[in-house]
Write a structure and sequence with these properties.
The chain is built from 24 helices and 25 strands. By secondary structure, the protein is an alpha/beta fold. The structure holds 3-O-alpha-D-glucopyranosyl-D-fructose.
Length: about 650
């Protein structure tokens, strides 16, 4: 039941007046914490009220739920550790000045599973110098909360948001690590898997034992009537599992909505009690020192009959309401959205009021697409249309992550480039599984849907880029090309705008790991092929040999990171695609027009000339400087310049 915008400030004032005694009581032992809380509450409440009215305004007990939400926020602020309150103030000031941390060119992200990278949290602490040497300032530790025994979707089936998986360590170790990281200038990112819990979360267990309130935390149906009505409209996310998005649970005698695996129960955000509960879990994690919460599977959090139950307006409402609650209780907290959907939808979650940062899956797939086609037409066209974001928001750029690659470019963009999206995806799937003639990629087909012909691709960076195949054949030229592709991809994600994410292992050119096939809990999920276990002995050996692919990849990456961290022109999100009249070369400008950097990227294995005089008007007549190799580049008025195979240049006017 939305209320008129004009009435919101008045209702907010009334609410504050009504709830002040109760809220203030939360701070009775620490009264200094009340005034800053009140300031933020007054600032955020009008929009929070608006959102909650839209989501739950029809409830007779709306005001009671509202009060509970605000009490939850007040208690979380009271519990917030002092150093984090200080860092909150820094984050708020930077954002208000238009310089949020994620626009800083010194930011470099890394992603790892704690156990696979360093055994446990203690082991991870010992590896911090390694991350330091790479220049890492943002660390995403893959799901590490207590997860379901047996299959747990790599920890995405969470059994408790308040405990660390015992094999990995304890919550107090995690909190300590987070603080230690932040002192070193590194922000910790953790997943907030809030679309579902594991089927052995306490709430699920209580639901199975007959607790009605906990049953209402989930979507449950007494018979197949509703599931049968909904099913045809829903996308199959993991078709391998068979069946549809509903799982019969014998202990309950009910059918539970399970969008992902059968043991991941979707949470019911239309229930305000669940909403408040999840706000509490979110603030609990924030107060352990999590700077960034990666919001998992955001498109799915609101269901609506008659639709595909993805990207519903209320999904945005929930995230925006969490955002407002975060601003009130943990103002330094940022959200990163994980929406792997149509590019219009990806962007729709990204704004200062919703998720401040987001994966950029479109850039990710277009990088691979351009390497397969040796053509930048679709990439250029899509980036021109879609790279821009609202002020105060930013991308996280990446080459690949722990998940599969699904070809999420827009069909209409492809059509505008004269291509058929469906056929193009078929080509890309054939290419990256190595089935297309001439392809050197060694990806694996993931979740092939025999009904639609659709599939996605698993594979490590090195294997997708051709290194695995070339090394197996002892093809030295092939190895060179693969290393050049890897360097090119890193070069682009490090310079195009946004915080680049390195999936650890890729920096050492680690290839697919086929051992998952022997593990009963993993063999049905070939994403494990590209989530390798770090072999530190081997890494040391490889790094000691400067000619090894591992050493060369790390060296190239470090050099690119040094250039990024040294160039203020690479800060901020603004990026302009340039037309250089050669479809094999991606060209873009970063930084101010009067002191720009121009990046040129050749997506082919042959030299490419660029003779467009536009470069001269941007960079002057030269000689220019290529910053990665730190060498001069001369512009020839007749022939322009020539990029080597897979060459990536970062040019400054000298
Ligand atoms: C996410 O991915 C995680 O990244 C996966 O590792 C999990 O398995 C999954 O959620 C369930 O928690 O379908 O193939 O648009 O595409 O959330 C990966 C978002 C996925 C979904 C995405 C999901």
């Amino acid at each position: 039941m939305p209320i008129a915008p004009a009435d919101l400030p008045r209702e907010a004032r009334r609410t504050v007046a009504r709830l002040t005694p109760g809220l203030q009581r939360v701070f009775k032992d620490e009264p200094v914490l009340w005034p800053p809380f009140l300031i933020r509450l007054e600032r955020e409440l009008p929009r929070l009220l608006d959102l909650l009215h839209r989501l739950y305004g029809w409830r007779y007990d709306f005001h009671w739920h509202l009060e509970q939400v605000l009490l939850t926020a007040a208690r979380a602020w009271r519990e917030r550790p002092a150093p984090w309150r200080a860092w909150d103030a820094e984050e708020e000031a930077a954002a208000a000045a238009g310089r949020p941390w994620f626009h800083d060119n010194r930011q470099v992200g890394a992603v790892a599973y704690v156990d696979r990278f360093a055994h446990d949290l203690e082991g991870l602490r010992e590896r911090l110098p390694y991350l330091d040497r790479l220049g890492v300032t943002y660390l995403h530790l893959m799901p590490l909360l207590r997860a379901r025994a047996g299959e747990s979707d790599g920890g995405y089936a969470v059994s408790s948001y308040r405990e660390v998986e015992p094999r990995l360590g304890t919550m107090s170790q995690l909190a300590q690590l987070a603080t230690e990281l932040r002192w070193r200038g590194v922000r910790l990112c953790l997943d907030f898997v809030f679309n579902h819990t594991a089927d052995d979360h306490d709430w699920a267990l209580a639901a199975k034992a007959g607790d009605r309130d906990k049953q209402d935390y989930y979507w449950m149906f007494d018979d197949r009537t509703v599931p049968d009505r909904l099913s045809p409209g829903l996308r199959e996310i993991f078709p391998d599992r068979g069946g549809d998005a509903f799982t019969f649970v014998p202990e309950l005698g009910k059918h539970v909505w399970t969008t992902f695996n059968t043991y991941q129960w979707d949470l019911n955000f239309s229930n305000p009690a669940l909403f408040r509960q999840m706000a509490e879990e979110m603030l609990f994690l924030a107060n352990r020192g999590v700077s960034v919460l990666r919001l998992d599977a955001v498109p799915f959090i609101w269901k609506r009959e008659g639709t595909d139950s993805e990207n519903q307006p209320e999904a945005h409402g929930i995230i925006q309401a969490f955002n407002a609650i975060g601003r009130i209780a943990a103002p330094g907290l940022a959200f990163k959205s994980e929406a792997i959907v149509h590019p219009d939808q990806v962007t729709s979650y990204v704004s200062p009021q919703e998720a401040q940062v987001s994966y950029n899956p479109l850039l990710m797939v277009l990088l691979w697409e351009s390497l397969a086609t040796r053509d930048t037409t679709l990439m250029r066209h899509s980036l021109i249309k879609r790279f821009g974001l609202p002020d105060g928001a930013g991308w996280m750029t990446y080459i690949r992550c722990h998940d599969d690659i699904g070809w999420g470019f827009a069909d209409e963009d492809a059509a505008e480039c004269g291509m058929n999206g469906f056929d193009h995806r078929r080509f890309l799937n054939a290419f990256y599984t190595g089935r297309f003639p001439g392809s050197v990629a060694r990806g694996l087909p993931f979740q092939e849907n025999r009904r639609t012909g659709d599939m996605r691709i698993s594979g490590a960076l090195a294997s997708l880029a051709g290194l695995e195949a070339a090394r197996a054949k002892r093809d030295r030229a092939g190895v060179e090309l693969a290393l050049a592709r890897i360097r090119l991809l890193y070069g682009i994600i490090l310079t195009i705008g946004g915080v680049p994410l390195i999936y650890l292992g890729d920096e050492l050119a680690v290839e697919n790991d086929y051992a998952f096939a022997d593990d009963p809990h993993r063999r049905d999920d070939n994403r494990w092929a590209h989530r390798p276990v770090m072999d530190w002995q081997r890494a040391e050996r490889d790094l000691a040999d400067p000619a090894s692919p591992a050493a060369r990849t790390t060296a190239a990456l470090r050099r690119l990171i040094a250039v990024r961290q040294d160039q203020p022109a690479l800060a901020g999100p603004a990026m302009t695609i340039l037309s250089v009249r050669n479809a094999h070369v991606l060209a873009y400008r970063r930084g101010a027009v009067d002191r720009p950097l121009v990046v040129l990227a050749n997506v082919t294995e042959t030299p490419q000339g660029v003779a467009d005089a536009g470069l001269v008007s941007l960079l002057g007549s030269g000689p220019w400087r290529e910053l990665v190799s730190d060498t001069p580049v001369a512009w020839d008025p007749a022939a322009g310049v020539t990029l080597p195979p897979y060459g990536l240049w970062v040019l400054s006017g000298g």
